[in-house]
Amino acid sequence: MDLTLMVALVIALALFFDFTNGFHDTANAMATPIATGAIKPKTAVALAAVLNLVGAFLSTEVAKTISGGIIREGDGGIQITPVMIFAGLLGAVIWNLITWLLGLPSSSSHALFGGLIGAAVVGAGFGAVDYSVLMSKVILPAFIAPAIALSVAYLATKLAYSITRRHDPDSGDKLPRKRGGFRYAQIFSSSLVALAHGTNDAQKTMGVITLVLISGGFQTVGTGPVLWVVAACAFAIAAGTYAGGWRIIRTMGTGLTDVKPAQGFAAETSTAAAILASTHLGMALSTTQVASGSVIGSGLGRKGAEVRWGTARRIAGGWLLTLPAAAVMGAGAAAVAGTGMIGVTIDGILGLAIILFIFLWSRRNRVGHDNAVSNIDNAGGAVRIKKGKSRSGSSVSPGAPEASARPMDKEHSK
Is the pLDDT of residue 198 over 80? Predict the structure, then answer.
């Protein structure tokens, strides 16, 4: 296949991956404010799309980590071809769509890294991967960043509830807590997460496109993404974000519906801080992992909240599975593509068929802005608030619908 045509095909697939990255990660910023009623669903995704677009122009450090870090540069250029990059992207896209269909908040970043690493190993051998960069810029942040976000969210939640505690000046009795202002603050904090997401996740596709341009001889080794690449990736991830990713918002929203505005504000602020710091250091972390860690931290920080560790373990299991699963898919696609133009064609046809199948299957159970945070199950819950007694003195039974408890429980409505 003509090199120019192959590079163009890879760029198109990379931008499609960027689109899937956008709707896959919308929930990280907007599930909480949607669930607490701070902002309407369609307005939330529109705001996130604009801020993802802006954020994509603010930094290229993560892009440089991918284009000139994880995959080694040799004497004759980078030890990976456009065909291998195509195979890696195909594995990442398919895994992203599978997890989207299941409503699983997995890591688009790790799907991308896994696909590229699997394809590079099959096409150029284990020496094509710089494992020191992989460890320092990807693996370690995957463990450290969520832990830091969890800790910061825990402390921030404790602080938020401490400074808003009210007592009667005469009797010293506790008064009803008025924390409705945090609902408005969530608009700011969730917007900051969306902006931070653009500075980190959009960079990954910029790095991939830069990688293929360098490997095809269209760009000098060691250079970063050019302006048209930055702009194309910014608009692709913004379009994906606007598409909503409602299935994952529904999953994240199940756990976040019991998270009150003060907790949501603490979790979102912690998430944004962790992502922006990692972007500055060129660390390509998973925003999904950071967001989930912050939610758990906010649950631990609120008195009366209970963390569902079983669900948290299932989410963590998805994190651990993503990179190797995408690597296997990328490796398989690379093995087929390595046979030549026929192999690339087979990969393209099979990939398109799988994508269409997933899309048509998803139409059997449509999830949109009108039902993403209603009629939901408890499969994705990360934090659950213990039900207290109502003012009438009757307790809420575990099986009772939460909606029936809320009008009676002013404490929880704040």
Answer: yes
Query: For residue 354, what are the contacts with CB-CB under 8 A and spacing of at least 6?
Result: 94, 97
With both helix axes pointing from N to C terminus, report the angle between 3-36 and 287-301 in degrees, rounded to the nearest 10. Answer: 10
How is residue 355 annotated by DSSP? H
Burial state string for 304-318 with b = 16 or more CB within 10 A and e = fewer than 16: ebebbeebbeebeeb
| Cα 316 to the center of its chain, rounded Å | 13
- Considering only 128-132, 144-148, 246-250, which range has the smallest mean pLDDT? 246-250
Token digits of residue 163: 């400074």
Q: Are 106 and 99 in contact (CB under 8 A)?
A: yes
Q: How many residues make up the chain in this entry? A: 414
Q: Which of 163, 139, 171, 200 minimizes the C-alpha distance to 324?
A: 139
Six token digits for residue 380: 């994705």
What is the distance, to the nearest Å, from the Cα of residue 55 to the centroid of all Cα atoms in its chain? 15
Contact status, residue 359 vs residue 93, Cβ threshold 8 Å: no
Q: What's this model's pTM, rounded to 2 decimal places?
A: 0.79
Distance CA 66, CA 58 (A): 17
